[in-house]
Amino acid sequence: MSAAPRTARGTRTRAKILEAAERVFESVGYHEASIVKITDQAGVGLGTFYLYFAGKQEVFDEVVEDLNRRVRHAMTEAARAEDNRIAAERAGFRAFFRFTAEHPALYRIIRQAEFVSPGALRLHYGRIVEGYVEGLRAAQLTGEVRPMNAEVAAWALMGIGELVGMRWVLWQEGDDGTGRRPEVPEEIFEEMMQFIERAMAPDAGAGKGGNQ
């Protein structure tokens, strides 16, 4: 991996290349993308690219990691403001759908990672689930949610969010002219959350499952 930038200007240049790579990978896909297209989009020379990245594969993996870091931050910050797990779930899902409306590349690039960089794909989902499991286990200890296998629940909740977002964000018609996708309609969001809240409610199936 290339050395980290040593100056503020270098940090900004590297970030600009990452942003350009995200747009290129989203619009034309990994196989049609090229370093020349990325540098043209970023407004930098080829030599500058190689100061920060070894090649296309490395910058792709960095884009995946950057998207993962940003979406986790958005969800965590939103959930942290709430005082119970169910409210945190609502806030976290809203933040996720808002992020994907603003950054549809999250879906398109992660789908490419399945074939281009399976390790980056597993890292993406694994990091999200890791934090989710920790939060669910803590909520079980305080009785905010029913006893359940936290890992299974985390993967199931993540799957719900991803597929609902795909249907009502990524596939929804229209945008605001900036590339931002529509957010999940409120009635769809409420239907999804009612399903989740019933599944997680402390009095639903008490005594079954386990704090795994």
UniProtKB/TrEMBL annotation:
Record feature DNA-binding region, as residue ranges: 34-53
Coiled-coil annotated residue ranges, if any: none
Record's keyword terms, sorted: DNA-binding, Transcription, Transcription regulation
HTH tetR-type domain ranges (all copies): 11-71
One Pfam family from the record: TetR_N
SUPFAM superfamilies from the UniProt entry: Homeodomain-like, Tetracyclin repressor-like, C-terminal domain
Protein's name according to its UniProt entry: TetR/AcrR family transcriptional regulator
